[in-house]
Design a protein that fits this description.
2 domains, 7 helices, 136 residues, elongated
Length: 136
């Protein structure tokens, strides 16, 4: 036997207070950050992709990082050559002099942010910490 059609509609509504809304915003932000960081990790876990990113970086900024030159002169580990080339570039006098100056513009600030992300992915903070511990 068929069901009788509904003769009324009941609407259930859930309302959150400000504290619950803040918690939901934090959860959404954390979820978005988690997905974004996984995407960045997956993108940079492949050496070929890192080389392409370095090439794009050099084209956009019109700076020669020397990383790609280091790759051409290696006979062993490509990843180690990339990391060492990047660290040499970051510790160069020219880079250090231009870092603060670039931070005054939006594009320069984004470039510095990009540099810091690559530095963090290549273990720069860890190596600097170890160097400071050895000096003390």
């Amino acid at each position: 036997m068929p069901k009788a059609p509904a003769d009324q509609v009941v609407i259930h509504r859930i309302e959150f207070q400000e504290s619950e809304r803040d918690l939901l915003r934090q959860i959404a932000t954390a979820y978005t950050l988690d997905r974004s960081s996984k995407a960045v990790y997956n993108l940079t876990s492949d050496t070929t992709t890192v080389v392409v990113l370095i090439i794009l970086y050099e084209i956009i900024t019109e700076k020669d990082t020397g990383v790609l030159d280091a790759i051409g002169n290696i006979g062993g580990d490509l990843t180690a050559a990339l990391v060492n080339g990047w660290r040499d570039y970051r510790s160069s006098q020219e880079y250090q002099e231009n870092y603060d100056e670039r931070a005054t513009s939006v594009f320069g600030g984004l470039r510095n942010l990009f540099d810091n992300i690559i530095d963090a992915l290549t273990g720069g903070p860890v190596s600097r910490f170890q160097e400071q511990q050895e000096q003390n």
